Amino acid sequence: MAAADAMPPSPGDDDRPVLGPAELLGPVGADLPPLPPSAVVVFDHTHRTGRAIRRHRWPFRMVSLPTPELAIVVAGGPGAPTAAVTVEMLGHLRVEQMVVVGVCGSLGRMPLATGDLVVGQRAISDDGTAPRYPEPPEPAAGLTALAAEMSEARSVTTVSTDVPFRHTARTIAAFAEQADVIEMEAAAVFAAARTVGVEAAALLAVSDHYHGDGWRLGDRGAVTASARHAVGVASQTLLRRAGERPV
Questions:
Q1: Using H for helix, E for strand and C for coil, what is the string for 5-47?
Q2: pTM, whole model, 2 decimals?
Q3: Do residues 116 and 226 make contact, with C-beta atoms less than 8 angstroms apart?
Q4: Which of 10, 25, 98, 144 lies in the 20 to 30 Å Cα band around 34?
Q5: 91 near 193, Cβ under 8 Å?
Q6: Which of 88, 75, 101 is nearest to 193 (CA)?
Q7: 62, 168 contact by CB (below 8 A)
């Protein structure tokens, strides 16, 4: 029996979560300065750009502040739960818009090379995190369109999973009927961001490719270089979008 099935909500239950960023941060949170209104989020510290600063105890692995309007945040690790917590923390710290930069595997539905950048136009949830949010896993349309324009990247449908070692040839084939790439964070990011009122988009570097005989990993150096380039594109996208938004 799943945990959600074991403890169904009662008709009179309050639907508000009993734990949020403010409660988790406790007294430390009161002393934290707000972050800039725009943030690029990465899940691998080798993808970040800029000098990391640690003088504040923000609840992330690393934070860089290249401009007063922009933060580059390294999340605590990959995967949907960490991604969702990161989004909620950023919303609590007054971030208004974000682009997550990650990696993805090509499912073979469109011709993609290692290091190609793609923009998540639609996310299908195969994870356990996104469905727990009341809002759907949909990216912010305007921010996503601008990210696609500035990166000159193709728009894709992605499937977000949290069990990369459990998929069979049959499940991968089923995914490939609906999606172009597979990764681990986008659906949770989109659902959490919509729930807390933050605009979110996803810019992904293709890192590996599925063929009928299994996965073929791309050159790690090329993937890292592409992801770091994506961080720069995401930064410019956010700064331009901030200038276009009504005050």
A1: HHCCCCCCCCCCCCCCHHHHHCHHHHCCCCCCCEEEEECCHHH
A2: 0.90
A3: yes
A4: 144
A5: yes
A6: 88
A7: no
Which amino acid, one-letter code, is at 75? A
Q: Which residue is it, tokens 């990216």?
A: 139
Any idea how long the chain is?
Answer: 247
Q: Which residues, listed in sequence order, are joined to residue 204 by a DSSP beta bridge?
A: 102, 118
